[in-house]
Amino acid sequence: MSAVETSLDGQTALVTGAATGVGKAIATELARRGAFVVVSDIDDEGGRRAAADINGSGGRATYVHADVTSTTDLAGVLKAAGVAQDGLNIVVANVMGGGASGSIWETDPETARRTFDIMVFGVYNVIRAFAPALIGTSRSGSPARLLVVGSEHSLGVPPHVFPASVYTVAKYASLGLVDTARRDFADSGVSVTLLAPSWVRTEKLVELIHSSRELAEAIEPNAQNADEVARQAVDGLMKGDYITATNPVTREFALERARQVMASVQTLPVVGPSDDASVHDGTGDTAKCPVAGHM
What we know:
Elements: E1 12-15, H1 21-32, E2 36-41, H2 44-56, E3 60-65, H3 71-75, H4 77-81, E4 90-93, H5 109-119, H6 121-139, E5 145-149, H7 165-184, E6 191-196, E7 200-201, H8 203-211, H9 213-219, E8 224-225, H10 226-239, E9 243-245, H11 251-265
Parallel strand pairs: 1-2, 1-4, 2-3, 4-5, 5-6, 6-9, 7-8
Helix pairs in contact: 1-10, 5-7, 8-9
């Protein structure tokens, strides 16, 4: 895949949660670069409007209803959009919903469970549903890419953000999903990228800013426009980046967390390659794992 590729002419992209916000902005950017975009959401009115806005701006898009918590909905998206199994080039797993401010113990279990059902299992469901199509596209010789929309919360606990522990946990899971997807797709030619923005001026965030002067003072200085985040997201996706962080405010706390991890493990003794056949090599080949056959 060329690092300087800029056009998506002739390619097809699917974006979940694309009725509003970051999802809509990414869908719009993909269409601007030439892709045919399948806009997917549970908000039918907003989703149809997003597709109409893209079409009205000279792009090409269609809307398909799908709830990311429903494997049945996801299984029918490509057929409903008229997309062949080997004709899907880009999947954007953008999932948002649930979550509440406060510490772990201030969040009730039902809220936490609902948040994880949407934001963790939702992303898992999207990857699982469209992995065969992406692999088929790659094997046919066309580009195949997965973008998981995470957050700066995927990289640690942002000190400049009020506590929202359950949300942070859910977004942190996005990094684990990306890491394992990169391993699982390693031999298929499908690239996997994590988008990790900070505050983005979506419709909901603007409402939040307007609701409180205190929130406005805390959020607005660090907020980015959705179209700028979308541009960085698609740039990172097309380059095959591992992580696309969009906001300088993320830099120091993410680096500090990385330093803490390094400090915790660098004192461990160095272990060289083993000739022991019972030790797998980390490639994901379960035949080399001494535990997999007993699970």
